Amino acid sequence: MKFLQILVDGFAISSLYGVGAIGFTLIFGVSGVLNLSHGSIMVAAAIGAWAMAGDLGFGAVGGAAGGVAVGVALALITYTLVVRPIQTSSRIAREEKEIFVLTGTLLWGIMVQEALAYLFTSNPKTVRPLIAGVVDIFGVRTPTQEILTALISWAAIGLLWLLVNRTKAGKVLLAASINPRGLTLLGFELPTIYFWVWALYGLLAGVAGVLLGSFLGVSSDNVGQLTASAFSIVVLGGLGSVTGSLIGAYVVGYLETITAYSGAPSIRTVPVLLLLVLVVYIRPQGLMGRR
Length: 291
Prior knowledge:
With 291 residues, this protein is an all-alpha fold. Helices cover 74% and strands 3% of the residues.
């Protein structure tokens, strides 16, 4: 019975991680940015949904939509106020801009985390579920919201696949990740492309944050853990590889779930980080990355 519970819960949390990790991978693949404020954006979306559904009276659906909007807005603010100024600065050497962006997004994430703790305290918040009740899966009683979490996550992943592979806008994103200079020669504006990529990333991070808030609950203290999990997933799967990120999400999700059910939820990320060190040592490019 415990095995089945791990199987069901692990699938839901892994699917949720997959949505967030794909967004993380997307902005790295297109704009070359590793966003270390990722966890704070997810938590802000979840807390936004919690506040709107409860205190502001928007209801479960309205709160969830508002939380996703918070994720999009915060992602765009991150790009506009933190990333873009560093990338376009003439005072920072080109070879140093990457580390400045890493540092800038890290500090920005800490600022958002502290703001959330100040405004809403660091107590855990649980987002109101979209669907109440439980279902029985092979004898395992599972909240209906947990099943919905997996379904929405895979729907988001499927829609992203259709966008990238079946639309003109998706082809532009692929071209921007392969040859951005060539794309500018065709008349496309890279800043505009990056803006919309960050908006898409915010949408995915917002969905992941809201679903996480309704599944496990979140607090400002979870920011570091969520960023570490996302970073572990994309490095484990291979930087820039969407398929690798999905595989990495399930490895990380199930490993964390097994650790939590083994009686050590407070150190659920430790085995993941140890695995990451091992993978980086044996296969630095990740599972699906290229040398």
